[in-house]
């Protein structure tokens, strides 16, 4: 029970399902990336590439103002903001 007398229900099943979905997604990405790496290494040893990727020969004018999203900076700012909010 909480301090106001109401019973608190923990959404454990939902959290477990979400965690399981996240683990499945991470495993899929991990396995896929490892497969690409293995194919790339196999192509390097055999002399003919099995993995191909696209390289722009000329910059795309539509992307001249493109700024990549800095996920690491975002999470850092969010962490500092959460710490500041909880300590205030």
Keywords:
88 residues, 2 helices, flat, MCRIP, cytoplasm, nucleus
Helix content: 55-70%
Strand content: under 5%
Low-confidence blocks of residues: none
> How many beta-strand runs?
0
From the alpha-carbon coordinates, what is the Rg to the nearest angstrom? 23 Å
Structural class estimated from helices and strands: mainly alpha
* Count of helical regions: 2
Instruction: Describe the sheet with the most strands.
Output: none
Family: Belongs to the MCRIP family.
InterPro entries: MCRIP
Keywords: Cytoplasm, Nucleus
Subcellular location: Cytoplasm, Stress granule; Nucleus
Description of the structure:
Its main location: cytoplasm. The chain is mainly α and 88 residues long. Helix content is 59%, strand content 0%. It has helices at residues 12-46, 71-87. The radius of gyration is 23 Å and the shape is flat.
How would you sum up this structure in a few lines?
The protein has two helices and no strands. With 88 residues, it is mainly α.
